[in-house]
Structures are given as structure tokens and as C-alpha cells.
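Colleagues,

For the teaching module next term, I've prepared a clean inverse folding example: a structure given as C-alpha cells, and then the sequence designed for it. I'd like students to try predicting residues themselves before seeing the answer, so please don't circulate the second half yet.
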């Protein structure tokens, strides 16, 4: 929990939770729309995309060969007007524009977008004073459990082990390192009493000198259709540990996002993450 929550009594919803999806024509947008169609307790209630998207005006589930009656729109207020919760996997500037309207309309939000600056994260924290937001760079159960394993490993290997984080993603990904890799770095640094802003090393080339033992290094691979691989290497003298998570389908991110939607039913305002949703705090 990273903000001030205002819990409302948790209750079993008597009607399906109405969910709008931003980035409806994107890789995650489509995965989310498919997950909503298969869900018993959540229903698609709005679909947003950028004005230049070829999907504008078409039915959001047309790609599934089905008509939902929900058209993809670039009008944010129109796309949100029937929604309880927005799920946003877009770009930072899009997320901020969507959250501003969520606050006006009393719509809660699940934010999976990555690549925010610190200033943009601070803006989101302000929005969370007006509506409830779950934000996490990775919605999968497996990655969040991996983060807990990393916390434990980092405490036990705070000295004598060099820490390197290697991530690989598909050729279309626009931000690097991945939000997940950065979160792994933050979790490890915090567990070891370090500050990632001071010890993160994001590039090496030429005569770099010897490795600073307090550093946490990042290496980024981009290629093909890799869904998302993350490895943290703890390299000591005489042994090394590698903790790896590999995603083989985006459905894990979509299912985690729906868990976050259900979690938000019990909250009116506040900033939460997937540790809150999954009870891993
Ligand atoms: N938290 C998690 O578990 C996960 C997070 N992600 C993150 O989600 C984000 C989206 O990933 P992915 O679905 O692969 O990306 P895509 O590029 O496939 O989809 C992004 C969608 O957002 C739209 N979009 C682009 N710019 C804007 C904008 N300024 N405002 C509103 N909408 C916009 C795109 O439209 P158009 O294509 O027309 O530009 C597209 O429909 C990334 O930041 C990624 O890192 C991804 C997977 C899991
Ligand atoms: O862009 C992606 O695809 C992914 N982005 C997220 C990130 O930046 O960590 C999560 C996942 O790795 C897939």
C-alpha cells in the first residue's frame, strides 16, 4: 500500500463489475477484453484508444468474432461513463489523461502501464487521493511471488554477491529496462538498505573499470515475440544463484488485472499495488 486508503466495507457485488479498457486495440487491451468476456463477475463497459487508432468506432470484441455493443472511442469521458473501474495498459501520457477523467467521474483504476517518470508517479499519487488505484509494473502472480523471493535472497546475500538483472521482451516494447526489472531492483536495493537511484547501472561500454560491489546492474534484450523474461543473478565467489521468471502468455497479466478490479470494490481512494491485491505485504 503506497497511499492512504479509505476502505469501504467489502461486499459481494450484486451485479457484475463494469470495466472499461484503455488501449483497447493494443496487445494487453485485447487480452483484457478476452479475459472480461470469459469472466463471471466482470463485464466490458467501455473501450478507449487513441484517435489515430484504426479500431475507433468498431465493436471492441469484433476481433473475437463477437459483438459486445461497446464501441472503441477516443472520447475519454464517453468511454468511462458506464464504468466502475478502468484498466489502463497504454503509455504514461495516456494513463495520466485517463486518470484525470477517472477522478472527475468517480471511476477507479488499475494501471499496468510502465515507463513513468518520478514526476508522473507523483501525479498518480495525487489522483489516488480522489479515487482508488492499483498500480503495478507486473500483474502476474508469479512475478509478485518472485519479488518476495528476491526480498529474502537480497537480505541473505547483502554482501559478497554481485547483483545483475537481465530482462528480455518482444521487439515492440518501447521502455527499458522493463518496469518489472526496475521494481526488482528497487525491492532488492531496499532489502539491502541501498538506494537504486544511487546504485543502479544501466549501461556498460568500453573501459568501464572494475565492477562497483554496491552496484545493481541491468541488461536489456529486445527481440521477436518474447512475452517477458526476468532473471536476477546473485554472483558470488564459487557459486551463483539465478532467480528467473518467464511469462509465456499475457493472460497472466490480464487475470491479475481482474483480481485488482475485484480488490478495488472494497476501496474508495488510495494507492495500492499487487502485493495488496494478493495479500503479499
Ligand atoms: N503491468 C503489467 O503486468 C504489464 C504491463 N505492460 C505495459 O503495458 C503497456 C502497454 O503494453 P502493450 O499492450 O504491449 O502495448 P501496445 O502498444 O500493444 O498497446 C498500447 C495501446 O495504447 C494505445 N496508446 C498509445 N499511446 C497512447 C496514449 N498516449 N494514450 C492512450 N492510448 C495510447 C495504443 O494505441 P496505438 O497502437 O494506436 O498507438 C495501443 O492501443 C506498456 O507500458 C507495457 O510495459 C504490458 C504487459 C504487462
Ligand atoms: O511491455 C511488456 O510486454 C511488458 N511490460 C511490463 C514491464 O515493463 O515490466 C511487464 C511485462 O514484463 C510485459
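(Answer key — instructors only)
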Amino acid at each position: 500500500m503506497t497511499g492512504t486508503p479509505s476502505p469501504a466495507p467489502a461486499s459481494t457485488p450484486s451485479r457484475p463489475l463494469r470495466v472499461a479498457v484503455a488501449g483497447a486495440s493494443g496487445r494487453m487491451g485485447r487480452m483484457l477484453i478476452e479475459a472480461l468476456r470469459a469472466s463471471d463477475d466482470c463485464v466490458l463497459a467501455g473501450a478507449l484508444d487513441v484517435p489515430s487508432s484504426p479500431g475507433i468506432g468498431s465493436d471492441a470484441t469484433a476481433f473475437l468474432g463477437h459483438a459486445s455493443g461497446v464501441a472503441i472511442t477516443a472520447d475519454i469521458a464517453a468511454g468511462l461513463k458506464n464504468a466502475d473501474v478502468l484498466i489502463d495498459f497504454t503509455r504514461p501520457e495516456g494513463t495520466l489523461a485517463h486518470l484525470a477523467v477517472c477522478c472527475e467521474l468517480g471511476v477507479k483504476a488499475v494501471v499496468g502501464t510502465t515507463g513513468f517518470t518520478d514526476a508522473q508517479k507523483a501525479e498518480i499519487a495525487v489522483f489516488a487521493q480522489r479515487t482508488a488505484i492499483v498500480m503495478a509494473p507486473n500483474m502476474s502472480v508469479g512475478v509478485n511471488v518472485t519479488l518476495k523471493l528476491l526480498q529474502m535472497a537480497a537480505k541473505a546475500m547483502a554482501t559478497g554477491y554481485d547483483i545483475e538483472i537481465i530482462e528480455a521482451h518482444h521487439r515492440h516494447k518501447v521502455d527499458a529496462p522493463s518496469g518489472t526489472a526496475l521494481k526488482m531492483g528497487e525491492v532488492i536495493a531496499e532489502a539491502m538498505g541501498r538506494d537504486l537511484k544511487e546504485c543502479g547501472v544501466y549501461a556498460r561500454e568500453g573501459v568501464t573499470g572494475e565492477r562497483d560491489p554496491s552496484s545493481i546492474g541491468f541488461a536489456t534484450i529486445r527481440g521477436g515475440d518474447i512475452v517477458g523474461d526476468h532473471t536476477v543473478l546473485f554472483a558470488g565467489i564459487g557459486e551463483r544463484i539465478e532467480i528467473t521468471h518467464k511469462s509465456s502468455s499475457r493472460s497472466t497479466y490480464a487475470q491479475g488485472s481482474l483480481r485488482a478490479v475485484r480488490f478495488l470494490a472494497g476501496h474508495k481512494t488510495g494507492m495500492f499495488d499487487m502485493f495488496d491485491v494478493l495479500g503479499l505485504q
